[in-house]
Design goal:
Number of domains: 2
Strand order of the largest sheet: 1-2-3-5-4
Shape: elongated
Number of helices: 10
Order of helices and strands: EEEEEHHHHHEEHHHHH
Amino acid sequence: MDQAKITEFLKGLTFEGFLLVRTSQQRTSNNGANYLDMTLSDNSGDINAKVWDPMATPPDVGSVIKLRAAITEYNGRLQMRIDKFRPVQSSDIYNLSELVASAPEDPEDMRKEIDSAIESMQNLVLKTLCQGLMANVSKEIMYYPAAQRMHHAERSGLLHHITSMLRVANAIIPCYPMLDADLVRAGVIAHDLSKITEMMSDELGNVSEYSTEGLLLGHLVVGVSQVREIAKLNNIPANDEYVLLLQHMIISHHGLAEHGSPRPPMFPEAEILSIVDEMDAKMDELEAVLKRTPRGVFSEKIWSLDRRVYHPCYLKAEDIEEDLSFSEKSAEDRYEGLL
């Protein structure tokens, strides 16, 4: 399958090829006309697409379509104006792996990393709670994303998010000896596992919608109840110190009330979890922005960050020797000029 990647799209180009449908719904414009609003993706990113045909039927979420479209721009962001599309046919030749955004590491390896972190815990209460929570999502966690559209919205994205946070936490823990290392790691592992009940995802990591439980309660509240259920199943008192601490870390990890946390972090490990979670989410979003933004150029406004992002002209490894020789030559020239 030889087609341009979404991150390579430029305004004014025409695209013809295959893309994965991440969201798809019929909407009504201000003048009362029906149109299709879709989010389409390949393994490099996603893009909003419009079909200005009132008779067009929304394709199934998670399906692959063949399309022809013009690349336009709206509110500073690239968009597709689709002229024609159809579901794929048996005679079509395309590579599904080229269309599915996936975590950069093997899910089996990431799962082993999490299991190893749990196995190393000395605190038996936290170890039991984490083992129980992971056992409940043993199948789904292998492919679930961490979000529908924001950070780590990819196949196995939840594993990617947790393992990235574990690595950051492992680097931070030695810097602050007061921290309970097992508690920090347990918070990292447990904080977003309830997203698996909050969102409805297929095995490609494509979230079609949020569950009734997710919409009514949200993953923070559900996560707290799941910890209590695991504690009860293992005869751990609901008021055990570490049960309460882990529940607090889950319910407070968004940090502020305006970000959805019913409580702010009230002890050091909870504060570290909130900081590392926000940092990892933002770094993942920034990485995605840089991939689609040329060096030396500002991106469109990123609504989740409430700003535009600049892609610096970083010094590549292959440029170092050339630039150093240029610097040395310039220094010699300057020195000679002083004589």
